[in-house]
Amino acid sequence: MGIFKRLLGGDSTLILAALGIIASSVFLLDTAIVSGDGGVQHDFAYRQVAFAIIGLGIAFGVSRVPIQTWQQYWPHALAIAVTGVVAVRFVGTVVNGSRRWLDLGPVSLQPSEFGKVLALIAVAGFLGSRAREVRTPRVFWSTLGMLAIPAAVVFIQPDFGTAQVYGFLALGMLFFAGARWTHFAILGGGVVAICVIILGVLPAVGLTVLHDYQVKRLTGFLDPEADAQGSNYQTIQAKIAIGSGQLAGRPQDEASQVQQGFLPEPQTDFIFATLVERYGFLGGAFVLGLYMLLLSRILAAVGTAASFYGRLIAGGVAVLFFCQVFVNVGMVVGVLPVTGVPLPMFSYGGSSLWTNMAALGLVAAVLREAERPGARYQRRTGRPVGGFGSLRASSSERSRAGGARGTGSRGASSHLTGSPLVGGTAKRPRKRRPTSS
Amino acid sequence: MSGSSLRSRRRRTPIQRAARGISGLSSVARSPREGVGPIAPRIAIAGVLGACVIGILLLRLWALTVIGGAEYVERADSNVIRKLPVVAPRGSILDRNGRPIVLNREMRQVTIDLQDVDSDRLDQVVSDLGRVLAPNRFEVSKVTADIRQKIKNAPPGGVEPVIVARDVPDDVIVHYLAEHQTDFPGVDVGPAYTRSYVRHETAAHILGQVGSVTEEDLAAHPSLDLIDKVGRSGLERRYDEYLRGSNGYEAVEVDAAGVRSDAGIRGLPPTPGRNLVTTVDLPLQRTAEKALARAISTAAATADGRDANAGAVVAIDPRNGEVLTLASYPTYDPNVFVQPGLKNERTASWLNNPNNKRMPMLNRAIMGEYPAGSTFKPITAIAAMGEKFMTPDEPIGCPPNLEIMGTDFPNNQDRNLGGIDLGTALEVSCNTYFYKLSIFFDNAAGPVLQKWASKFGLGQRTGIDLPGETGGLMPTPAWRKETYDGFDEVWKPGDSANLSIGQGDLKITVLQMANAYAAIGNGGTLHTPHVAKSIQDIGGRDEVVLPPGETKELNLDPGDLAAVHEGLKRVNTGGNGTATAVFGSFPIPTAGKTGTAEKFPRTDLAWYCGYAPADNPTIAVCSVIDGGGHGGSAAAPVVLAMYQQWFGEDGGNIAGGSAAD
User: Fold this and answer.
1) B282-347+362-647 belongs to which homologous superfamily?
2) How far is B84 from chain A (nearest CA, A)?
């Protein structure tokens, strides 16, 4: 357990859940994916193992970086995220009618995947430096506006699913930051109105915002049999794959939906259908259970976080995982539209795996921060250890104190104390405040 | 979770411990200073919301798998991917300079897959198809009946689609069928290839035909598909393995209604067949065929050749055995077998009719067995000199007739030429000269002349790379004994006399004779004649030269050969030469021999065999006209026309041949 402790800040349940998901994925890829001639092929499993080893390195590396380090770089993260998706827009490779890949010779990367964790860092940094204004409408709408840029570009790619994830991310992090319910309510009303306009009013007057196929996908899942060969083909084939898995799944040679190629993207976007066809409800429930376990531990980390920024990061990762699982599984079981969101750490592919493992590395860094001597005291009192002249202040703390944007000499503690949610309410004036914001 | 928080949790109540899933919030909530911190309820809300959503997903999963599973199993099992074969284009056949002789024409064919049509719906689908495919409304019932017949003829339980219409010309039909797929379950319009004989009759007998695969073919070659075409005759059959590519397939998804759609998975593209480059010189082949037809019609108009109705020509490169021309008359246009249309169908059935006395499909150049006549005399001469029965300069008599064992053998002319040498005997084609030599052979121990003739490949298959070649017959005392009873079973001196001038029971093919003359012309090397030169990929690259057949040195005495050679030159140029009238004015020296073989009761068989340029031949030709009368007047002009094509009218192209287009 010592290694786990070092790796993920000591939460062995978290890391076991994560490793369980990856191991299940490799096991599935090894036993269910067929090659062109119908035989089982193991290549995907082998490569996924390689990806996972690299991913563990990434997670470990990220977990060693003190979490506060990232805060000052939020504008950079935003810029990189936007640049990445914009670059794909112009020089990317079109796969399946969608321009999502950046072909870098031997490797192809999906910037929109890395964009997810970059967006998370951007929002966390932005909100973290405006801790006391979280309840103001200005911060609420700017946060949404910030992610609207990459979301819009991703939307045009077209990659509706990732745009959806950005939306979830912004809202979820505002939620954990303590934004007002009234703002959420106003936003909800606005979204409903916009949907009505985009889907109903604008086409009626001859303006099209969404691609035809996008509209079909967004509405088609409500009545999949309507266009069985067209836009709902994937939904139907996924449902057949899942349903035919029954309770305990079908043997490999009978799992015809994957074996004969009816199921689209059996190892990436629709891997959950592959799982259920092969291992039935029990297999699906097992993996969903692992996600519930993982999510509960990330939520726990939100509570454990020693700083407002760390809490935002952990909360963001929770939202990231949750909405990816929800959007992907919801799509596969036919309750949500078909969008290109992979099942985190389960779908085959390096970009997605590395992104999600980096996110878990961030959670580990949050937990490490909470483990730091004096952190619990700080959490309770709102006073930094350094304030007592501790000689054990870490180097990361020193650098933070000197360099973090929007912070005073007190470093992270000022954000924590500035939070409306921690150690009291925002209404109560604090002794120490950020000198600038 | 930090160790300290775990420790603190241990002190809590079992209820709190049960809430470990969201225990993060409890640890925060329990901190004295943070007891009222609003993050706890938010985490709780998030946890409950998340649990609810995942719960809904699990319920949905339960509904799909456990409750609705049986139905989906059925649907999964009725999802069918069918691998529709994609026929590989067959390789082309080219002449020695790359001129195409047979190409593939891509066409569209309409097929119906009976597996995809309900039997009660088939009738409706077929009549709809007839309506769509018929060129006008008057032919609807005929086309419909035709389709029904084709479906009826399909092998029962067959998995291959039935071809209901080939060569569908109209784009409108194709699009109509594609757009009304649901009305035509199992009906498919796909590309197919058909042979296109771009030179029509030219080289028809060399090329041969392709035909549909039969059950026997499948048994012999499991790699074949029923939809394939295989070579049935000629080069198409001999080199089928190269010409035929291997089929690919296209993966098509078929649902319960028989409607097809792209399965979205990759099929296997077909591997095209390889081109076959032949040794045939297309201009020479064409010239030979025209000249042969003309010569036969000319001969048929004369009294001596009134029965002329068939013939054959073979031209070989004496240096290597490459067959430059191989023609047979009567001929036919192979396109009638592959092009649609009533007229073509009628012609095809006439051609294939076994009672057709003209036998146009018979390749007379390799299957027609004829008595050799006087063209055999050079062989007799070489044998006699080889056995030291005589010398070329020794004068031997040429009386108007010769009595052998009480039978009178007449010469072909009434004049008594007295003692003549070999050269003169060949020049004037004196029969009695050779009868006199036959006495030596008759007295010799064993069938000596037959042995020499066999050495030149006469009376046996040459081994040419064309299927169906026949060997002919080389009569020997043993053969006679075996074949006949009583008086006829004894080999008599008259048999030797007949053999010495290529008559009697001797039967050879034009190809054998052409090859023997090639050996005389090249100084005594007998090649295996061959028509295929190389194979190349469909783009003309990656050429692989096919190995030529065996080569045999005959080890002839150069002096003997020179004497015969001299005599053959005098045939074409001498004052009394039997072919001087034809070749005398041709600018390039030529050598050859005429032949007029009796084939009672028909008019005589006209032969001419020769080679040119006489001293260093690049071409050896042999032509025969069945019933054509005199060799010099009927058969020799065919060869002259070929020399004129090969060397140019003025003999300017001394090397011979034709350049690439």
Assistant:
1) DD-peptidase/beta-lactamase superfamily (3.40.710.10)
2) 14
